[in-house]
# Entry
Amino acid sequence: MKVTTTIQPVRTTGHRPKRKELVAWLEANWRATWIAMASVTPGAEVKPIHSGLLVKTGLPVSYFNMAMVDRAVRRPDRAVKAAESYFAGLPFCVVFAEGHVDMTVACENAGLTRTETIPGMAMAPLPHATVDPTLTIEPLTHDLLPTFLDVFCASFGLPREMAERLATHDYVDLEQSHDVVAFVDGDPVAVASTFESMGVVGVYNVGTMPDHRGNGYGEAVTWAVVEHAKKRGCHTAVLQSSDMGFGVYRRMGFEVVSSYCCYTNEPEG
# Structure
């Protein structure tokens, strides 16, 4: 069953954010989200460094042990060495703005492998969205956590024990976070998460059960969490897009404002 979302564009005569502002908001929200996640993930920790932020969950997936490196880093080689030392024995990734040639050279000199380019996207102002009522969208509660995890694991191919480390009951209680589970005829079909910081809502973990893809559920839950954030006073939505979601986000009105290189110490294949 396909669903649709009705969008009412917003007319604005005020200041439209410049690209530089949108990039700064996106990156600040990304970091704030990881810091908050680490605070409720057992065994996780974060370490601010002069060139960025190190986030360690201890999970055996490189994306969950991340060195986020600033654009203005002066010694890329030192930043990479700091990551290697901090994540010793763990798979990790180094993420930085595309076009930073010295960081690229430092990562390749260290034997790291480029895995992907991550589009950073933003939308401002936020339109009004009304989601098809045939899709029931419920906010995440402690009782719904097992169902949320079911959809999260199926959507992203994560082992259950790993997902349970990331989405804990403490995570449910995070004040700045808002998560939803969507149902069709009582069956859970999609999830989405957000994190709010300084009037900006970051959209994360949009996932649809594999056998329910292509029905607009991922787009619908994205609109639902953005609309919720708008009602709470957020003026801009940001996200880091996957290949699968890129076309959907573009159609929704998100624009690419930055791109990020991702290098990892995990072997290819």
